[in-house]
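It is worth pausing here to work through a concrete case rather than discussing structure prediction in the abstract. The textbook approach is simple: state the sequence, then state the predicted structure, then interpret. We follow exactly that order.
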Amino acid sequence: METFFQQIINGLVLGSMYALVALGYTMVYGIIGLINFAHGDVLMVGALVSWTVVTLMADSALPGWGLMLLSLPCAIAVCCTLNFAIEKVAYRPLRSAPRLAPLITAIGMSLLLQTLAMIIWKPNPKPFPQLLPSEPIDLGGPVISVTQCLILGSTAVILAALMWLVNRTRLGRAMRATAENPRVAALMGVRPDFVISATFVIGAALAAVAGIMWAANYGTVQHSMGFLPGLKAFTAAVLGGIGNLAGAVVGALVLGLVEALGAGYLGQLTGGVLGSHYADIFAFAALILVLTLRPAGLLGERVADRA
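Step two, the predicted structure:
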C-alpha cells in the first residue's frame, strides 16, 4: 500500500504539471479551433529562461526560493511575448485557411523553436539547481518533497484564478463569446483579435510556470524537453474533452495517475520484462480506451462546425 500511495502523490504532481499545459491547448482550440503544437516548446523556453536567470544570479545572496521568484516573471514575460508573436506572425494570417495549413505551421513552429533553443542554449542537458529544501516530508510511509508541495499548491491556486477569470471577468465573457461565434461577438463590441491574442498570452504564462515546475522537479533542462510534456498535455486535453477547461484538468490528473501507477506496477505486472520507462503504454492505452467508448472525451461536448 505504501507504493500505491506514493505513486498517487507522484501522479497528482505529474498531472498538475500536465494540467497547466493542457489548459493552453484547450483554450486556444476552444476559441479558434487550432491545435498549437508549439505550445510544449513554450514550456521549454520558460524552463531555459528560468535556468539562465538562476545561473546568472547564482553568486548573489538571494536564497533559493528568491531565485525562483526572480526567474518566474522573467520566464513568463519571455514566453508571453513569444506566444503573442507566434500568434500574430504565424497563425493570424492563416485563420481563414483550411485547417491543415495552421496545423502544419504549428508543427513547423515547434521545430523552429527547438532549433533556435539548441543554438542559443546549446544541445547538451543542463542541471537545474536545487532551489528548495531537498529533505522529503514523511507522510507516514509515502514521502513528498517541498518542490512537489509547491507544485500542487501553485497549480491549485492558478487553476482557481483561471476559472475565476474565465467565468467572472469581462475578458472571460469575451473569450466565451468569441468561442461561440467570433463574428457575432465582434458585432457586440468584442475585439476577437485582442481576445485571441490574450488567450495565447495566458496559455504562455501557464506554460512558463509549468516549465519551471518541470525543471525544478526533474532537475534538468534542454532544448528538446518540451516535446514529451507537450504531447502528454495534448493527450490529456483530448482525454478530458478538447475545448473544455474542466475536462483538460480532469484529463491531466487522470493521465498523471495512470502513468504513475503504471510506472510503479509495470515491472510486477510483466514479471520484470518491462520497466517503469514503458509507463507511456498505460497513458496512451487509457486515451484509446476512453476515445473508443466516448469520442468527445470524459467531459467533452459535441459541437457543430461553425459556418
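Step three, interpretation. Residues 2-130+145-293 form one domain. The chain has one domain: 2-130+145-293.
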